[in-house]
Amino acid sequence: MRFIGFRFKRPFTVVSVLYCGKLPQNSNKEGPVKAKILLLIVIALGLVSILAGESKTRDADSSAKVERGKYLVENIGMCGDCHTAHNEKGEPIKEQWLKGTELPFKATVPMPWADKSVNIAGLPGWEHDAAVKFFMTGIAYNGLPARPPMPQYRYNRQDAEAIVAYLKSLAPAK
User: Fold this and answer.
1) Which of 48-57's residues contact partners 24+ apart within 8 Å by CB, and which partners?
2) Same domain for 136 and 165
3) Residues 53 and 126 in one domain
4) CA-CA-CA-CA torsion sign (139, 85, 165, 72)
5) pLDDT at 49 over 70
6) Distance between CA 76 and CA 93 in Å, rounded?
7) pLDDT band at 60, cuts 50/70/90?
8) Is the overall model pTM greater than 0.70, yes or no?
9) Could you tell me how many helices (H) and strands (E) the chain has, helices first?
10) Mean pLDDT for the chain overall
11) Number of domains in the chain
12) Residue 25 belongs to what domain range?
C-alpha cells in the first residue's frame, strides 16, 4: 500500500488530502492511468478548497479593514465634522457624507486656510500609495501638507491602509 498526500496551511485554512489505496501494478496498462486520473482529481479538489478558503479569508480581511477604517474616520479622525454638509440643526446630511462642503468657521488670525473641505468619499484623484502616505505623514501627493484646519495625521501603516480602504469603498458605482 502506498500513501499519496499533501497538506497546505494558510492563516485561516488548513486542507489535507490523503489517498490511501493500493496503487495498481504496472502489469495492467489501465491501472496507472486510473491512478493518475484519481490523483489529479484529488489534487484539483484540494486546490479548489484552498482557493475558496483563501477568497473567503481575503474577503473577511478586506471587510475587517474597511470596518476598522470606518471606525477611524468616524470616531477618531472625525472626518465628517468638516467633510460633510450639515443641516440647520447641525446634523450631518447623510446623502452628502464626506463629499466636501464650505467650512462653517474661519481662522481668527491671518494664515493659510482652507475655506472648503474636499470630497473624500472614494478618494477621487488619489492613488492608493499616495493616500496611505498622506495619512501616515500629513504630506499630500504634491509634496505639501494640507492647509489648516486639516490636521497632519500620523497614523501607522495598518490604520492608514484601513482608512484608505474605507474611503475608497465609498466611491460611487461606475
Assistant:
1) 49/15, 50/8, 50/10, 50/13, 50/15, 53/10, 53/12, 53/13, 53/15, 54/10, 54/13, 56/12, 57/10, 57/11, 57/12, 57/13
2) yes
3) no
4) positive
5) no
6) 20
7) low
8) no
9) 4, 4
10) 81
11) 2
12) 2-62
